[in-house]
Fold this protein.
Amino acid sequence: MTIWQADFYRRPLKNELDQALWELLICDQEGNLKASVLCPQAEATADWLKDELIKLAASLPERIQVFRPQTLNLLETACQSLGIVVEATRHTPALHQWLERRSQDYPSLPEYNGQPYQPLNLDRPPPLPLPENLWGDRWRFATLAASGIAEVFKERPIPILDLPAEFLPLNLGLASDLAVPGIVIDGGRQSMRLARWLEASHPYSLNFLAGAPDGLVLEAGLVDRWIVATFEDSEVRSVATQYENRKQASRGLHFLLVQPDDSGMTYTGFWLLREYPT
């Protein structure tokens, strides 16, 4: 399957009529640039996008990945009649690299408007409490040996399993004895309901946020945020800090495991997650 990654949004540029400019940037998963086109903001529509894609018709992909909500809405409309599936995902590393590279070029362009610009910033809402009907019995920080993740979870009959091949420790070049951090939730009677909700929400990462109280926040979808737990215990904060340090050591790799109880006999859902630096 041919997959591209695309972004279409306002840049720190303006034309000779003082109109804000948007840029369509498209690359493949290997980082090969397919398109970089500017247009005035007033023309930044799904029809304009469709016309630009048609110009690339000789090599259109089966799927286009998008991380920005504003791009998603326009691109879905543009691709409806082109037979291209549009996938909402935060995992667009090749595109992120191109956006960072392009942001360094803008100040040297005659269209540059001098405004500060962060190419990967998105408006993220404050985190919402996890719905009460999804609360499990308990949760805890945990680790898994990098060498055992693929073998253990590929062989178990887990109803909901998200184990992307590109996230496997071996494919990331991680040491086999590295402790990969994660969160385990004993869901009790809510175990399957919670796992299905998570599956529909598309988990991206689980982060410790220090505050009053401290919290564990699930990043999901493109910009969704959910409070999984809060705590004020200093010992838990220490373990949470170690969890974040381990995430850095594992190149952002971590996991979420939902199970009925701590017997180790059955698992309900497992997600291997990777948070990219932004």
In short: The chain is about 25% helix and 35% strand. Helices lie at 46-55, 69-79, 93-105, 149-155, 169-172, 191-201, 234-249.
